[in-house]
Amino acid sequence: MNRLAYAFGLLSVCLIACGxxxxxxxxxxKHHLDEQYIAAIPLEEKNAMLxxxxxxxxxxxxxxxxxxxxNDAGTQLDIGKNEVKQAKLDRDSAQAKKKAAEESGxxxxxxxxxxxxxxxxxxxxxxxxxxxxxxxxxxWLKKLLRYHEENTYAAEAxxxxxxxxxxxxxxxxxxxxxxxxxxEQQEDRSRRAQRAKLIADQERDKFMAKKKEWEAQKREAxxxxxxxxxxxxx
Length: 234
Prior knowledge:
Layout: H1 2-18, H2 47-104, H3 107-169, H4 180-225, H5 229-232
Helix pairs in contact: 2-3, 3-4
């Protein structure tokens, strides 16, 4: 029975960490302390609470930015897929021109057509590599957004704990108030945020590898087109 419980525990951790199994993501905090109970405490004694509150606001702003980046990544991916379609049309046109050139027997025309076909083929490969990189980027940004969601709740938990610490220090105890649940809530949310950050960093590494592949392919395609990649690299 203990082994079964242990196995289910590992499965739960994996589902949370990997974002699989229909994991709905982080939910609201269970423990809050209404500020009315600590409102009478002098402001100069609330420095830790105010610092935690500012950190919470910054975390919320970062989450909004991460959400906007993730949505924009979807748009960029759609554009990239359209670029692949266009590149394939250009390759089809180049292949048709090469066939016509070969039928003409004009070697100058044939050589030029072959060059254009090679460039067009390289452009298709570069466009496909770009889409692969954009897909990896969007996957990374999705995991990054999850991290910011977790981190926002972690920051809120630290804020709630700071209020609870203040109440405890001043011997303020509203009905049903207990300090320890605030401590455990903060520890749990911090662990979740750290785990989500690790997963996001792993996805970022995968994206950077795909990005390097695309950049290398793009350089080859640009060089085939006669573009000075050194001058346009930046």
